[in-house]
């Protein structure tokens, strides 16, 4: 009898877990630059015991989802989860109202939000643009996923940050395909005293190989050891603030495959057209062919303009889409930083419009409706506090939609945060200061989303503030 009761209880437990695995809940979000996709059905999150943690928290904490099978077109994944990082950052914040508010949301139920944009996936710990990075970002509640787009030798589109980064983002140098690279590995050289004379180098382009060959490679964390004398040493160049713990698989994807994966996740997509480093036309393939192919591929995958945020640093790409794909141009964003927004002969200042290559009214008159500025363009140091910059104020005044890039890409912030924190370095001295930046971008600048290398951080903030 005892054995029978134990078996019965075990059976009930298994059935209960199976029911939980099939439970669904609604993941629709707040407003964004573009119209939301239909609500995502995902597996259930654990309900919180706190029914109303904060006035700004619109998460329904007493929601009890009813059992339902996962739709065939939706990826069956674990519930949205924050993990430990948001809580680490909150604990590291200086005491104040923002810290108190974020702490008050500790029991909220995680849910997907389009405010949380995955920057090449969850790239703080997973190889960028890999299937594994995208899956991790999906579990962290990212409502928008990014594929930077480059083309192969046979003019197929693939997810890579650059057409010239295979030697630092994949294992190509350790494979026979290294012989096809524009420049195979060259070891570092040193003088008799051990001083570096020439750094180790290589150059492998997506256009050096076909899509079929590309698919045989494995993604790795972006990085290279410039002091390397062997290929193995060169490939072991992961930045110290990242990890190789999750680099064992590193599945590469074409744009078509990535879009199919994102469709199963039921999230929006933000492909970025990367400017080729090779001369165009490339074996008869023109730059206009490339621009057109991106839109055609997105459309053929079933992504409507309302579900798509096409990106580019090249303002002529936006003009091309306005002329040839006006539906997708409405939601397209012009990516900007000091490299493409500085007036000739000037030093860029986010506080001085005289240093800007374009004024906001000009952009609006061109038909550009959305900007994606680097974070440092949108904030400034105002008497020791992070505040909206003049750049952000003027963009907002012109009604330009804005999304920001990129947080959690600088490593520990104890030394000021580096390039992404230009202008606020002096008031950035601990990891928790990241949430001060996020708060100003969201509330004062009014961005509709933030790119992050670890989407759980922005998901947590967005859930806590009803975004």
Could you give a quick summary of the protein structure above?
The protein is an alpha/beta fold. It is 29% helix and 15% strand.
Walk me through what this model shows.
The chain has a single domain (72-164, 231-465), classed as TIM Barrel (Alpha-Beta Barrel). 29% of the residues lie in helices and 15% in strands. It has helices at residues 2-21, 85-91, 97-104, 131-139, 166-169, 211-214, 231-235, 255-265, 287-300, 315-324, 326-329, 338-341, 360-366, 390-397, 434-445, 456-464, and strands spanning 24-26, 41-43, 113-118, 142-151, 157-159, 183-186, 189-190, 196-198, 201-203, 268-273, 311-312, 333-336, 370-373, 379-382, 385-388, 401-407, 449-452. The strands form five sheets. Strands 3, 4, 5, 10, 11, 12, 13, 16 and 17 form a nine-stranded mixed sheet that branches. Strands 1-2 form a two-stranded antiparallel ribbon. It has 16 helices and 17 strands. Residues 1-70 have low confidence and may be disordered. The chain is an alpha/beta fold and 467 residues long. Strand 3, helix 4 (131-139) and strand 4 (142-151) form a beta-alpha-beta unit. The longest helix has 20 residues, at 2-21. Residues 114-462 form the GP-PDE domain. It holds the Pfam family GDPD. Residues 1-21 form the signal peptide. This is glycerophosphodiester phosphodiesterase. Residues 36-74 are annotated as: Disordered.
């Amino acid at each position: 009898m005892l054995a029978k009761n134990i078996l019965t209880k075990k059976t009930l437990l298994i059935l209960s877990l199976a029911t939980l695995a099939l439970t669904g809940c609604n993941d629709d979000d707040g407003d964004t630059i573009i119209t939301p996709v239909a609500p995502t059905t995902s597996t259930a999150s654990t309900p919180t015991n706190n029914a109303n943690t904060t006035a700004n928290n619109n998460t329904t904490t007493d929601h009890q989802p009813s059992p339902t099978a996962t739709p065939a077109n939706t990826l069956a994944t674990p519930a949205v989860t924050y993990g430990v990082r948001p809580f680490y950052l909150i604990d590291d914040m200086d005491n104040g109202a923002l810290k108190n508010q974020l702490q008050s949301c500790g029991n909220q139920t995680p849910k997907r939000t389009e405010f949380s944009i995955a920057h090449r996936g969850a790239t703080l710990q997973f190889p960028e643009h890999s299937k594994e990075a995208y899956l991790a970002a999906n579990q962290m509640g990212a409502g928008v996923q990014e594929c930077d787009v480059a083309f192969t030798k046979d003019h197929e589109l693939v997810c890579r940050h650059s057409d010239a980064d295979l030697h630092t983002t994949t294992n190509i140098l350790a494979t026979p395909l290294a012989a096809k690279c524009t420049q195979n590995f060259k070891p570092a050289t040193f003088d008799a005293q051990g001083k570096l004379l020439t750094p180790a180098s290589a150059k492998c382009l997506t256009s050096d190989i076909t899509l079929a060959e590309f698919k045989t490679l494995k993604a790795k964390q972006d990085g290279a050891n410039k002091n390397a004398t062997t290929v193995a040493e060169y490939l072991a160049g992961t930045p110290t603030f990242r990890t190789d713990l999750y680099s064992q698989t590193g599945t590469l994807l074409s744009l078509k495959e990535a879009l199919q994966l994102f469709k199963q996740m039921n999230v929006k997509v933000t492909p970025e057209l990367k400017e080729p480093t090779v001369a165009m036309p490339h074996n008869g393939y023109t730059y206009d062919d490339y621009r057109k192919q991106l839109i055609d591929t997105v459309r053929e995958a079933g992504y409507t303009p309302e579900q798509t945020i096409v990106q580019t640093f090249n303002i002529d790409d936006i003009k091309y889409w306005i002329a040839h794909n006006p539906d997708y141009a409405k939601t397209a964003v012009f990516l900007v930083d000091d490299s493409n927004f500085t007036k000739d002969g000037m030093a860029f200042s986010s506080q001085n419009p005289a240093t800007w290559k374009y004024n906001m009214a000009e952009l609006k008159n061109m038909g550009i409706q959305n900007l994606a500025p680097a974070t440092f363009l949108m904030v400034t140091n105002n008497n020791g506090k992070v505040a909206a910059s003049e750049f952000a104020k003027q963009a907002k005044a012109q009604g330009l939609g804005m999304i920001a890039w990129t947080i959690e890409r600088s490593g520990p912030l104890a030394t000021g945060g580096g390039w992404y924190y230009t202008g606020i370095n002096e008031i950035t001295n601990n990891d928790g200061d990241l949430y001060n930046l996020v708060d100003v971008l969201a509330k004062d600048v009014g961005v509709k989303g933030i790119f992050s290398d670890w989407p759980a951080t922005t998901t947590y903030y967005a859930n806590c503030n009803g975004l």
